[in-house]
# Entry
Amino acid sequence: MRLLVAVFICAVAGIAGCGGAAPFEPMLAAQPAPVTPTPAAPPVEAPVAPPAVPPVTPPVTPPVTPPVTPPLTPPVDIAVADPLRGATFFMSIPRADLLGCADCHSDNPLVRNFGNIFSGRNAVDLIRRAIANNTGGMAYLGGFFSAADLADIAAYLGNSPGSLLFPPTPAGRTSAPLSVTVSTSTKIGVGSLSISVQGDFLIVGGNCGSAIERFSSCRIDVAYRPGASGSRSGVLLISHDGTPAPVRILLGAESGPSALGPALLPLARAGHRALVPALPPLARAGHDARGPAELSARGGHG
Ligand code: HEC
# Structure
């Protein structure tokens, strides 16, 4: 309901800074009282003229408001677009009084096309255009997310899951495949698609060609085949003309003798490994493992 109300108000009012104070207009503090000029001595020297414009006082935070957090500018690896980082950007904005993507577009944007968020799948240019055009009052977001951050968000919206975790696999054996789905915007497709993999992993199937039409998707099947060294991490890189840098899907494998049951992999794939230790009893008991822990994990990640 909060979503509906927020979007409705924002759509009706069509204002920047919707849902909070206008973010980029510094509040001017009261100007300092003018300094009374000292009575002039005999005019041997010309008195120093006061500056025409008083020095600008930094914006003052009202006492009731928490301190203003600086715009989100983490170190960004511009060599890749990272869907996991994009998910965190989508879910939160570093100002509690402002609405973030999830507040207006639902926190499950991989499944729910609320506010036409599917338009942003692998289409960073459309996200940037929506911000530049102040679509739905989104312009203020440009002050919080860099172009690289938005590329991460487009990668999150269009490539799922953002990481794959394979069960322990003996050296020289090939695991069962896990899949990544690459989805396109409701408005534009992608071309020049190329896929590569690094580490002890290989692409074993899927149905991706060199292009994906709009509002469509294709699938990449990846397997884990550790060599003698047993390296347990790698990357899947997905390049196309809708992303400024290849989308990087992290690949990993569990170590140890006891394999994770297949039912747990969706959890692990979603990047919530912290939840995994709590779940094996459920899986061993033969339940379908879609317990509350998984549901909440999905709520947090999509
Ligand atoms: C204040 C609410 C609000 C916030 C916050 C917001 N949006 Fe939007 N967004 C909207 C509205 C409203 C629309 C227009 C919905 C429609 O066309 O039905 C929209 C449209 C879009 C579209 C569709 C553009 C198109 O081509 O039609 C994309 C993509 C999008 N937003 C992405 C994002 C992303 C990514 C974020 C976070 C960085 C974000 N939005 C944050 C309200 C918001």
